[in-house]
Amino acid sequence: MSPAAANAGAETVAAVSIPNHYAGIYPKEHIERAEHVEGFFELGPREVHPFHKPAMPSQEQLQNSLNSPVIVTPNPMVKQQEVNGRTDPTFELPINSGPMTINTSMFEGTLEVHLKGLPTSQKRVFEGKKRFFQIMCQGRFKRAVDADGLCMGQEFVKAGNVPPWVGEMVLTAAAKVFSSSTQVDIYAKLPYFMNPVLAACQMVNVALPGSEPSLTEATEDMRLFAPELADKTGGPLSPEKRRKWCDVPKHLAGKQFSTEHVYTFHIWQHLIDFSTYKLSVGGFVNLDLTHALNCQPLQLTCKDTHADEYMFSMLVWHERLLYADDTSAAAALAERLSRWGAGFRSLMTGGSSSSSSAGKK
């Protein structure tokens, strides 16, 4: 099953009417595909998709939040997700303040989220470090989960303000920072980029119940997961060597996260600054995501892509994403990237306009 297989309640589109906004951005063969979820092309640039709208904060809420101009909410696409015992999709999650409980259909434990650059950001978490966010998660799986199916990343419910090939290039470049086994498909029903957790996250600890470390002080140790993840002295491999080993698909094939252990994950990245909603990849790509994403929020998502089931998923909203006074910047971005994309594609293909997706798994 595709990592971005549609949510159970999603419907496909038999025929689509494409607004002028997307003319020249998406190739004809992409627009005519009926696999995308309903609303992918039909919604206007300033409309939030119905999948996300139940969680959409008002401008007043964003301005009055302790984390202004950002609010993090549960993702309404996850049908069974309780955070601190609440299922309300409008619940503003307590980021930068300590652990919260998380309970989904496949996982139960605690989760702590830190974002840099906000009024509540904790200096100790980010001082001297490049990272823009950090997630710490600890708990137990409710069923066995394929190790190569547990991924973190983004799913997209709306067409963006960039040509598909540009989006594919940017997402692939960003994802490769985490692992070489990245999965990217911007032509899928829910376009996505996903990275296997074990090949991407910075720290994983596996322990027996009762002997697990504290959430914040956990250190790398995956010896209970696989004997290959012990070094020559019997100690745990370093995170770098574990990521390299887990980035080889055949090493994870057939292995599972069990219900008998307590797992602790630490995840961080330095590509997206959520306080400004800007993406930077290697100094070569700098993109204002409020213009590119068309009112769809970024996610903090971990998902069993084999079962199409979420371990957890949060939406990160920004005031400029929803309530920008000037939409001309988004239109200018779309036009600029469209012209650039058409010229570059013509140069690379000798005039051919054909395009294809890459990175499918």
Automatic annotation (TrEMBL):
Which InterPro entries does the entry mention?
Answer: Duc1 (IPR013897)
Q: Domain Domain of unknown function at the cortex spans what residues? A: 92-318
Q: What is this protein called?
A: Domain of unknown function at the cortex 1 domain-containing protein
**Species in which this protein is naturally found:** Tetradesmus obliquus
